[in-house]
Please model this.
Amino acid sequence: MLIFLLRRLIQACVVMAIISLISFAIQDKLGDPVQQMVGMSVSVEERNALREELGLNDSLLTQYGRFLQNALQGDLGTSYYYKEPVLDVIFDKVPATLELAFCAILLVVLIATPLGVLAAINPKHWVSRILMVITSIGLSIPIFIVAILMMYLFSIEWNLAPSFGRGQTTEVFGLWHSGLFNQDGLSHLLLPSLSLAIALMPIFTRLIRAEMMEVLQSEYIRFAWSKGLSSNRIYFIHALKNTMLPIITIGGIQAGTLVAYTILTETIFQWPGMGFLFMDAVSRVDTPLISAYLIVVGGMFVVTNTIVDLIYGLVNPTVRLASHGL
Amino acid sequence: MNLLSVSHLHVNFQVKQHSLPALIDVSFTLNRGERIAIVGESGAGKSVLGFSIVNLISKPGYIKSGSVKLDNKELTKMNLRQLQEVRGKRIAMIFQDPMMTLNPVLTIGQQLVETIRSHTKINYKDARNITIEKLHNVQISSPEKRFDQYPHELSGGMRQRVIIASVLLLNPDIIIADEPTTALDVTIQAEILQLLLAICRDNGVALVLISHDLGVVSKVAERTLVMYAGQIVEEGPTLEIINDPQHPYTQGLLNALPQMTLPGQRLNQIKGSMPSLTERPTGCAFHPRCPYATDKCRQESPSFIYSGVSSVACFMIEDMIDETDRDEDEQL
Model:
């Protein structure tokens, strides 16, 4: 277990070093940050002085070296726009994004699992057939259309939930602004998390169905039937646990997709999270913020996948993390 | 009265628009404590027959007609709930490959205890005690330790022992063993077979042994059914069938066994292969491979007749008996 975590840590360092290099390499292709920072009235001399001060005239490699040196001390730079350390800016927005992603994942698990199982148990039932049609349509509709449609229906036509912002938040332990503990926050969470969930639900429903159908064909399920066990026990104890093994792995990979979708969802719903911040940073050519975002997301990716692997090890008895080290 | 009686059982497989026969007019009986064997090549329908007894044929197979009676209760007409009471408790099954039969993510203990608890109202502790006792009975060392282990921590032979223990949990009347030793090492095969035989003898359990191995069958079964292309072609006491096979197919099977007395000889295999469900020959299904086939065999299917040794479905035997009858008539 310890060896496993240590290996993961080394992997994470490599991954993030590569990410930072890539994000640095594209920096000077993104536009001119000075132009975004100063007004029209600033003279060329002053612009050049600012450029020199920011170190933008040095070679890319020098800049990267300087960045790495600071990064190792926990300083990923200062945002051009906010004039604050980028990590502070990002961590200020982390709770909003994490809560959104968490609720979306919860919705996916709670809805996709029973639907997939149901469709696998009765594949020829008309409900299952309709479900398969809906999910294949769902797979091909981009998230922004779903989000805008939901916004139109739920908040404009029926006025059931607010369409933008995060609403009221409560401070938890003095460091986390949460929208989960009051009604206003929850109602604001509804549409963004639902549209994010809808983006991932079709693929998971289909995956669970396909996997479960295969598991139900296996010898040990037949043996379970021959023992005279109840159908519920066979479906939900014997089959579901085996079904979830590959799904957990895929879920870990899909965490990356989720990050990509939060950028879209947050932009559409004006959700004050990391994705929204990132889009702003891109349009303002706030390069330190962009790099820092990519590194933080890379780190989150590694952490999620480590957690997923740990869960996998718990569910699958044939995997022993300690001895294999993975 | 017979414990189990299967009569005129027809099982078909629905493949697209076609309904293909997998079992044709199969009838046999099993008495309490009796051990019978079903033999034949791969694809003869042995396993289908085994599974159709407890109505557990894999899709798209289904019972078309006929009856399976356990203590005079019709099994083919039962709903799932009634069948669940029979499965495991009165008729238990042992599958071919012990590596595939146990659920990989549940412990041995969980898989055995659940069997008891789904059929009887009993608390976990008592169920655990019964389980450990049965594991002990099948000669598994340190059963308390095995109880908490997962299947992948056990060897193949050990797993088959666990499965045998699991079918014993509820003291069933019948065990259907579908090639229980085929997937095992030769040395372990004999041990498992001995164990199975001892357990059936000691507890008075009836056994239906499905096998293609006549050596195995001769050690275990009192009576043997020989199957070919979904039909029973010969039935009789195991020793008689092995010493004096009547049906050309049974003769072929026995000739194909390696002979210790004639080393260095090529094996006499039966020419050709078992027809698939879709290309079933007319008349007697065995005629394309039969050395004695006549025109009659190609057109009509023979019915069962008692040859004096066993019951056989073959025109050759029919003619032979007719002739002896005629001879006897003439002598009179």
About this structure: Residues 186-203 of chain B form the longest helix (18 residues). Residues 58 and 161 of chain B are 25 Å apart (CA to CA). Chain B touches chain A at residues 54, 56, 58, 80, 83-89, 92-93, 95, 97, 100-107, 114-115, 118-119, 150, 152, 163, 166 (CB under 8 Å).
